[in-house]
Write a structure and sequence with these properties.
The chain has 166 residues and is mainly α. The chain is built from seven helices and no strands.
Length: 166
């Protein structure tokens, strides 16, 4: 259990640093910003305690908020995804699988993992950009931000997962 906590802490620190120092400065076509720290929340295994998932999710969102000047937006979005992650994972796992299965491309299969990642990233981005704009006045820009960021984040997550697989 201690090794797992150390691994989570290391992943937490690396993803926070990458997001704050590199990815927050990437803005393709004015609408696509990769939000890679979602990957941290997606990686919790099936039997992980719900309170711990919520706590880790809130903490990573809070760290991103502090360093990105987005007051509460990332924390609220990450906490929502942390709340929904176990239920979303159960939709893509076979019922007879182990209780402590970790969602990876190897354990879920490529197609199920892509759908799982897409649904998690989409839920996160919907919440994030809705809270960020806080209005539907410019709904076309809102939709572009959600679509572009979802595609870019999903590509990065699948690239990381393919590298980890080998």
């Amino acid at each position: 259990m201690k090794i797992e906590a150390i691994r989570h802490l290391f992943t937490f620190i690396v993803l926070c640093l990458v997001q704050v120092l590199v990815l927050n400065h990437v803005n393709l076509l004015g609408c696509a910003t990769p939000l890679l720290y979602v990957y941290f929340i997606m990686r919790f295994r099936r039997g992980f305690p719900q309170w711990a998932v919520l706590l880790w999710s809130f903490l990573i969102g809070l760290c991103i908020d502090v360093f990105s000047n987005t007051p509460g937006v990332a924390a609220a979005s990450a906490t929502l995804l942390g709340l929904l992650q176990p239920y979303m994972l159960n939709m893509f796992i076979q019922r007879d699988s182990a209780d402590d299965i970790e969602p990876t491309m190897r354990s879920l299969g490529a197609a199920r993992y892509v759908y799982y990642a897409l649904s998690c990233v989409l839920v996160f981005n919907l919440m994030f950009f809705t809270l960020e704009s806080f209005s539907f006045f410019n709904w076309l820009q809102w939709a572009k931000n959600i679509g572009g960021s979802t595609v870019l984040t999903l590509i990065l997550i699948l690239a990381i997962e393919n590298v980890r697989k080998k």
